[in-house]
Write a structure and sequence with these properties.
The chain is of the alpha+beta class and about 350 residues long. The chain contains 3 helices and 21 strands. Among the domains are: about 45-55 and about 285-355, conserved putative lor/sdh protein from methanococcus maripaludis s2 fold, CATH 2.40.420.20; about 60-70 and about 200-275, Elongation Factor Tu (Ef-tu), domain 3 (Beta Barrel), CATH 2.40.30.170; about 110-165, Orthogonal Bundle (Helix Hairpins). Residues about 35-40 have low confidence and may be disordered. This is Efflux RND transporter periplasmic adaptor subunit.
Amino acid sequence: MKKIGKIIVTLVVIVVSLGAIAKVLSNNKKKSEEKTQIVAQTNATVSVRIDTVSREVPNLDVIANGNFAPAQELKLASEKSGRVVNVLVDEGSFVQNGQTVATIRVDQLSVDLHNSEANYQTARTDLERYENAFKTGGVTQQQLDQARLQVENAKAKLEQSKINLGDASIRASISGIINKRHIEPGSVVSPGSALFDIVNVSTLKLNVTVNEAQIPYLSVGKQVQVKVSVFPEKTFSGKINFISPKADESLNFPVEITITNNAASQLRAGMYGTAVFDFPNQLPVIMIPRTAFVGSVNSKQVFVADNGVARLKSVTPGRVIGEKVEVLNGLTEGSLVITSGQINLVDGSQVSVIQ
C-alpha cells in the first residue's frame, strides 16, 4: 500500500508540474504575440528625414581659380642671317617698343647700301641724258622707257638695302621685360633664330571658368575682385574682358579677366589667383535640398510629409546652386519636404520623422 501511495504522490507532482509549465508557456506566447504586434505596427511606417520649405536669398557668390598669364608675350626672332656683334640687354632688363636690343654684323650690308646708292644715282643721270637726247631725236621712245625702268629698279634695290641695314639692328616690338636671352656676342643667327623672350606684365590675364547659373549675371567690363595666394592681405581689381559664347567639355564657360599690375609689379605670370564674383541684390526664392528629389533633379518629383503620410508632388526646378535647387512651382512655404528615405516610399506611405 505504501508503494501505491508513493506512486500516486509522484503522479500528482508530475501533473502539477506539467500544468505549471503549460501556464508559463501560454503566458510567454501571449507576450510574444503582443511584441510581434508592436513590431508589425512599427514596421508599417518608414523612417524619413525632412526639411521645412522656406524662401531664402540664393548665394550666387562664387570663387574661381586660375593662373596669371602675361597680357603680351613675344619670342623675338632674327629676320636676317649674320653674326651677332652686340647684345645690349640682359635677362630682367625692361625694354621699350622699338628699342635696339642687339646688332648683327653690318659690313657687307653697308657695302650693299653704298653700291645701291651709286647705281641709283647712275640710273638717274642716264635717264636725264636720254630725256634730253629724245627731245632732239637722238634716242627712241623704247630706249627712253628702258632708262626709266632702270631708275625704278635701282630705286627699289636701294630701298631694300636700307631695309636690310635697318634689320641689322634688332629692335623690340613690344614693351616688357627680357625673360630669356638666347644669344651671345659672336653667335651666328639665321632667319627665325630665337633671340629674346619678352613678357609684358604691366597687365595680366586670369582665365577661369564659371557655370551656367552665374553666366546671366556676368558681363564684359564688370569689375571683379582678385586675390593672390602669395599676397593674402592684398586685393587686386580686375575687369572681365571676355566671356566665351560656348561651354567647355565640363559644361563650364571660360571667362578672361584683365588685371592691372601695381606700381611694384608684384604680380608675376604663373602665380595662382582667385577671382571673387559678387552677385548682390538677389530676391528670396524657394530653395530645397538637392537630396529631396526622387532619383535626381530631372525627375521633377519630391515627397512631402503631410500628417504622417508621404505625398508625391510634381515640381518645377530652377537653378541648381551648390547643394540646393530653386523650385519655381509646386511647393509652398512651410511644407515638410522629405530629404532622405524616399527609396522606400510610395504615394500614401506612412512615415515617421527621425532627427
